[in-house]
Amino acid sequence: MTALERIEAVVSLHAALDRTVSPSERPFDEGALPPVTSEFVELPAPTPLPARDFPDILQARRSRYNPAAVALGAVELSNVLHHSLVSSPTAGGIRELTVLMVVTQPSDPLGVGVYRYAPDRAEAVRLGDVREHLRASLLQPEFVDVFPVLLFVVADAEAPLEKYAMRHYRTMHVDAGVLVQNLYLVTEAMGLVGCAIAGFTDARVASLLNLATTQLPVMAFALGRPG
Ligand SMILES: Cc1cc2nc3c(=O)[nH]c(=O)nc-3n(C[C@H](O)[C@H](O)[C@H](O)COP(=O)(O)O)c2cc1C
């Protein structure tokens, strides 16, 4: 198999698996999404994590469903993403994962919308209220009404499958799982609350986040301040 054939096979496998999940009955009108944009928002530089004992963090970590009804600051977001990503090992050291953020409660300098995280900045993908599309993408729409930010872990199948066999499709999900555990631990260390989310429709998330065909949504994580 050529690299291109491997990539195409994995993309169609991912889509076939997605079709085994019934999407939400809420309508998803792609034409009503805010337009795609390409603006940059500078993020605050990350700061060191609070000094807390690792055993305490590990034992305290939980999935939380009742955050405070307040926005998340850009400093907190920058810290969660920086510390979670830099400390995540990946198969072959390939950095195929990116994180996209859907901000539903604005906090300067991040207005509501969809952003792609880059180490020092957020690249706006769509600016505007996407809550109805987000609800229609999730199997538990209530996450949208309580959490100010939802993160999506996206795996780009192109780079790893140029190097590895199709079986690497599995490893991409292990990489995503490692990152999700770090998101949980860093969230806990920072005194924030979060919850992993696997219940979503890939096709709708891909439209919402304006993903390329080879960019596969693999996990989500809701993030907020404690209630
Ligand atoms: C890979 C993964 C996917 C998950 N997906 C969801 C989800 O879609 N919805 C949800 O409410 N919780 C989800 N969770 C949270 C689990 O339900 C939770 O971790 C589990 O019940 C154990 O609780 P704890 O995290 O508080 O220890 C997920 C957790 C993991 C690790």
Written overview of the protein:
- This protein has 227 residues and is of the alpha+beta class.
- The chain has helices spanning 3-18, 54-60, 74-86, 131-137, 142-146, 158-163, 168-189, 202-208, and strands spanning 40-42, 97-103, 113-118, 121-127, 149-156, 193-197, 215-224.
- A seven-stranded antiparallel β-sheet has the order 1-4-3-2-5-7-6, with helices on both faces.
- β3 and β4 (121-127) form a beta hairpin.
- The structure holds flavin mononucleotide (FMN).
- The site of flavin mononucleotide has 8 residues, from β6.
- Flavin mononucleotide binds at residues 62-63, 140, 195-199.
- InterPro entries: Bacteriocin_Proc_Enz, Nitroreductase, Nitroreductase-like, SagB-type_dehydrogenase.
- This is SagB family peptide dehydrogenase.
Task: Summarize the helices and strands and which ones pair or pack.
Elements: H1 3-18, E1 40-42, H2 54-60, H3 74-86, E2 97-103, E3 113-118, E4 121-127, H4 131-137, H5 142-146, E5 149-156, H6 158-163, H7 168-189, E6 193-197, H8 202-208, E7 215-224
Antiparallel strand pairs: 1-4, 2-3, 2-5, 3-4, 5-7, 6-7
Helix pairs in contact: 3-7, 4-8
The structure holds flavin mononucleotide.
Pfam family, one: Nitroreductase
Protein name: SagB family peptide dehydrogenase
InterPro entries: Bacteriocin_Proc_Enz, Nitroreductase, Nitroreductase-like, SagB-type_dehydrogenase
